[in-house]
Design brief:
Layout: H1 2-26, H2 49-61, H3 65-70
Length: 81
């Protein structure tokens, strides 16, 4: 009886994992390739490609374009003050 219960519980655990794994992977975070379009009037053709890449990396580090656009104010602290 104990062996049967153990085997059954292992099978149930496998079924639960098989069902939950795709569901949890579908609930992942938003994609990191969030669009960061240039501002109107920005001269993309004459800009340094590496500088644009750095600016895009900074935007992602700040939480993405959507978070930046929702920012209401920014403060700085100098020497912890």
């Amino acid at each position: 009886m104990n062996i049967l219960l153990s085997r059954t519980s292992k099978q149930m655990m496998s079924v639960v994992v098989i069902i939950l794994l795709p569901l949890l992977s579908a609930c992942g975070t938003s994609p990191r390739d969030e669009a960061n379009p240039p501002a109107p009037g920005f001269n993309l053709a004459d800009s340094d490609a590496r500088a644009i890449a750095i600016a895009d990396e900074v935007m992602q580090a700040l939480g993405g374009r959507r978070a930046w656009d929702k920012t209401r104010y920014i403060t700085w602290r100098f020497f912890g003050r």
